[in-house]
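A student in our group prepared the protein record below, which I am reviewing. I have pasted the whole thing underneath without changing anything:
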Amino acid sequence: MSFLNPTYLWCFLGLLLPLLIHLWSKKQHTTIKVGSTQFIEPTSSNRASSIQLNEWILLLLRLLLIGGVTLLVSGMQLHKIPSQKSIAYFVDPSLQSLPEVQKLIDSLQKKEVVFSFKKGFPKVKSNYQEDSISKNIFHWQLARDLEHFPADSLVVFTRAYLKNTRGKRPKLSRDIKWVKIDENIQSTFKPIAAKQSDKGTTIYRVKSNATTTLFNKEFLENNTAINTNGTGDSILTTGSYEKVLITPTKKLKIGLKVDDSFKNQKSYLTASLAVVSEYINTTAVIENINTDGEIENLDILFWISTEPSPATEATLVYYQPDQFADDLLIKENKKKYRLTALLHAENSIRQHLMDALVTLLGPSQEILKTAENDDQRTIAPEELRTNYSVKKKIISEVQKFDMNSYLWIVLLVLLVSERVLAKKRVQ
């Protein structure tokens, strides 16, 4: 029980008023002197008892009226805690297509309700199947939503994909039991994309299992026979057509703005970009930038200068020294990188400059996203466990019921009863 306006509970002191009036009326009496009691008829004891009973009932009704009005203005609300289930089971949607998991769900549904482990936690229906790829199933974000779920114990069946574990490990006030379901998958290299250039076609493949994800790249020269389907979006591999993203490789226009004081940086960058573009089978056109008007229509702009970097739609790599940085290239956002030190032979090797440039110039975001969907790496259930906090109390979801409508009805009945009884007493 709670009150919206608990200050008005002081009105309960008004209950003293009918009590004081009742006690004061008991003291008041009138003495009538008569010469003889010969003609005075004796009063019936039943009538006297009835009058006294009416007085007490009237007192009780008036006390209830004052108490009811006090509760009404105080905003009385009743609380109801939902009944808790002993165990709540949650199943990753990507598992529901497996026959053995479907059998498990059927056996659990005979005793408990089984929920789907995704946003909103809907109930799992019988014979329900979903795509084998988990979509937007991020374990720790959903674990936060489970903290106040009305159940004594929580059990989650999941594939425990590494790609679905993102963000900071949450600290919860309850423990969640994670059960990992393994599926034996014979993984082979699967083509995910193909890029066409003047020299030939580069086919990207990925192979993934529970422990590793491997990438493979095959370059086919133009004189190599490549079989495609009628629409040109699939290539013939291992005897069957498989749909992949075939994109023409455009020439990368790269601009270099290098101050005279950093002349040697131009040599390092030009040589590095030439090697990387050759490695990824991309044609890179490198231009020297002298004025801001020359930065239009660039794909990548390297700004090794003491002058402020300009606003551009190209991917910007600007120089800002940082002696505490671990990497030469730090990604600030999708189209902005920071070069933390001037290039030389030692840091180019030790801090993996070539790897950073391959990422910068390499496969498109579509290719990387396709590869992420095929990532089958998993982690141990112990790694899924959230941080447990014993200090934080679990706050159960409480349903509140407004009692004002019921109080109005009770007050109306009490008021009518009090008026009827008071009029009868006067008569």
Q: What stands out?
A: The chain is about 30% helix and 25% strand. The first strand starts at residue 2 and ends at 3. Residues 391-396 have pLDDT under 50 and may be disordered. The first helix runs from residue 16 to 27.
